[in-house]
Write a structure and sequence with these properties.
This protein is an alpha+beta fold and 217 residues long. 43% of the residues lie in helices and 12% in strands. It has one domain: NADH Oxidase (3-Layer(aba) Sandwich). α2 packs antiparallel against α7 and α3 runs antiparallel to α8. Bound molecules: flavin mononucleotide. Flavin mononucleotide binds next to β3.
Length: 217
Amino acid sequence: MNGQAHLEWLRSRRSIRVFAARALERDVLERVLEGAITAPSSTNRQPWRFSVVTARDLRQRIVDAVRERTEAMKAIIRRGHHAEDFGSYGDFFFEPLETAAAIVIPQYRPYPDLIAQLIESGGGDPAAMPTASAMQAELCSTSAAIMALLLQANAEGVGSCWMAGPMVARDQIHALLGIAAPWRMVGAVALGWPEESPPARQRKQLDQVVRWHEEKP
Ligand SMILES: Cc1cc2nc3c(=O)[nH]c(=O)nc-3n(C[C@H](O)[C@H](O)[C@H](O)COP(=O)(O)O)c2cc1C
């Protein structure tokens, strides 16, 4: 695939929120996860883990937990001063999970920042000499893995939606899946065979988001 064709393919990915009632085969899921672990990571630590939930009962318990916590959150927002502006906040916190054939809960674990400790032990101030922890390198690495997962899913024809909404039920999901410190979930990814083909969402133009510092001719 040449560069232009690859770019068009990248543009073909969509967040899919409605899925067919059809299971995802294990070999497809394994390739999707193999895709995820191709990602680069800080000092190649690969600080990620993935819980892959296809069991119907457990999926339902996750959906119920997120729905319950979302409703509780919405009730609190409705009582606040911002009800008019944020009345719909909380939409799509759990809906894509309802029809997903698989729910993936990516997790990352932070590591002690050895370089920061070395700087400190030599009398330096790590705050003035930022290191990997200043960019949450393990979270960044795991986010890269999630993006690779979404792209492999797209290549498989599998729909996906990476969601922050389920964080509202983080404690419940951690308990359901046995996720314990130092591991932390990074949202949820709904996966399934697409039952919708939404149009592309608007992107900011390159000149809005890129600042060039070019060599002058
Ligand atoms: C970190 C992150 C959190 C997101 N959380 C949600 C979510 O909770 N619910 C949802 O329906 N979509 C969620 N999305 C999907 C975005 O809404 C979507 O990526 C964006 O609107 C652009 O659309 P596209 O992915 O189809 O290009 C999230 C995406 C990211 C990267």
